[in-house]
Amino acid sequence: MASPVDIITYIGIPLAVLGILPTFYTILTSYLTLRTIRRILYHNHVPAITRSSLLSGIVEIEIQRKSIQPLDREDDEYFRSNPQGMRSSLRGGSWTVFNWKEMVIGMKSYRLQYHDELAQPQAEIDFERLVAYLLDRGAVPSVAGFNDLRNSGLWTPAGTKLLLSPTTNDGALMVAPSDDSDGILSLCLEWRKEWNLRDYDSLPPYWIRVTPKLKEFSPAEEDSKSEIKEMEHDEESVPAYTPTPTPTPTPKSPGAPIRLRIGAAGVEEAHREDCPSEVLRLNHVHSPPHTNTTPPTALWFAIAATAFGAPTGGLWAFAIPANISRMSSLETVPCGVLVLLGLLTDEEVPQWRSTIDQRDEGLEFHMKSMERHRNIAAENRLPPAQQAAARQKRIEQERWDFHNETVRRAQEARKRQEREFQEAVNSQKLTVQAVCNGTRKWLIEKKHVIADAETTDIIEQLLVMMIEDESFAKRVADMLNMWKSWTENSGLRKEHYDAIHEDLEAFSYASLVLDSVRSSTVTGQGNVVSDLQECLRMWKKVRLG
């Protein structure tokens, strides 16, 4: 019979050992987990405070939460990516793919039981600076992505692409799960080395570049030159004086490209690329600071510059006003007015003139001719003594009839012109795109632009001319303001027509500005600029990881 000692020895001790085995397992697992976590943190260059409760198996970690911002653009590391060994592979550490200015803003505590639960705190960054930095590296805004973010906010599905790679449709900046967001928008980065296609010489966000093109003689110069030749030809018969040959003017050389920073209220900074330190004084297209209103010239210059630069992508502080975008898509100019201005022909527009029956005038002329012949025949039947008096009376009557007819015809012509103008004003209106078909031909005929110039090239030269010529900039701005006025009010009137007729050049360039605004809206670039700006306004700070 087994004694109590035997029972304790053979049964109690094994049971006791089995009872403490889970504790031993927990201690061993906790130690191995802590060791693995420390190794992962070391390899990912993440400083942290780690401690473990061996009996509970819980590992506590404190990792610094950082606020980051891009380096200065002049820094050599600005366009470089972190080496592969310096990047963090932890969840929440996608921001370490680039070099940043870092500042510790707090500590983030984690309590976890397994090493695969380890994550890195997302970094806090200004949303606008982040987008500007990625666009400067070559990323492209996603029209659908920013539209979803604007409409859905924090409920935007994770994985939504906001910025795309410069070469493919892969996402460069995407919406991340909101595990570590604390009510702030969470984003994550995905950047590849082969996407680094830009450098310091590339154009940064908020900036546009306009390049003056090579110009030949202007029409005025050519006319002056031809007049000089005609004068020399007329004076060939005078041998006493031989005019000095006028030197042939050389074509104007193009100037250095001009860079302009477009802010929320217009041009904020400008300089030529060959002399970056010399700031251009462009007061006529510059909006004074601390003012609520933007001068018309500065406003329309900013609209033209944004429409010119928007198709190339990028970030824009200036948003084209909604009423201007809407105006560019409306039918605003009567087709008859364009015909009267000589920009289009009757064959290129719908029927708008009332038909005039010329048969009445022909019948009237025929009746007057027959009456004159009868009067002359009657004169010939009179005695010779009376023929001279009758002929004198007839000639006097014909003179008065001619005078009265001239006055009547002048009155009818004036009434016909008034009726024709009213018909033109009330005729079918055309879109801005149709107006540009006529204005472009006019600019080509007057040799203001070359025949094969694209709209973007013309707008670029328009911007250059507005920069260099304050009076020209004001003419174009006044024409666009007048266009806006008749669109929003009672339509085109006589004073508008007279102003257009006096300055067809400004009207032609104004139509091209509105057409470029329309094109940017139709292609979606105008929409993505508006959505992007609204998202930047809603989300000042975001979590990046």
Please give a structural write-up.
The protein is of the alpha+beta class. The chain has a domain at 258-351 and 428-537. Helices cover 47% and strands 15% of the residues. The chain contains 15 helices and 15 strands. It has helices spanning 4-43, 127-136, 143-152, 219-234, 296-309, 322-328, 335-340, 359-381, 384-425, 432-445, 455-468, 470-488, 494-502, 504-522, 525-538; strands at 48-53, 58-70, 100-112, 123-126, 140-141, 161-164, 171-175, 186-189, 207-210, 258-263, 266-272, 275-279, 331-334, 429-431, 541-544. It has a 6-stranded mixed β-sheet with strand order 4-15-8-7-6-5. A 4-stranded antiparallel β-sheet has the order 9-10-11-12. It is rod-shaped, with a radius of gyration of 40 Å. The two termini are 71 Å apart.
Secondary structure elements and pairings:
Blueprint (H helix, E strand, L loop, with lengths): L3 H40 L4 E6 L4 E13 L29 E13 L10 E4 H10 L3 E2 L1 H10 L8 E4 L6 E5 L10 E4 L17 E4 L8 H16 L23 E6 L2 E7 L2 E5 L16 H14 L12 H7 L2 E4 H6 L18 H23 L2 H42 L3 E3 H14 L9 H14 L1 H19 L5 H9 L1 H19 L2 H14 L2 E4 L1
Describe, in short, the structure shown.
With 545 residues, the protein is of the alpha+beta class. It has a domain at 258-351 and 428-537. The chain has helices at residues 4-43, 127-136, 143-152, 219-234, 296-309, 322-328, 335-340, 359-381, 384-425, 432-445, 455-468, 470-488, 494-502, 504-522, 525-538; strands at 48-53, 58-70, 100-112, 123-126, 140-141, 161-164, 171-175, 186-189, 207-210, 258-263, 266-272, 275-279, 331-334, 429-431, 541-544.
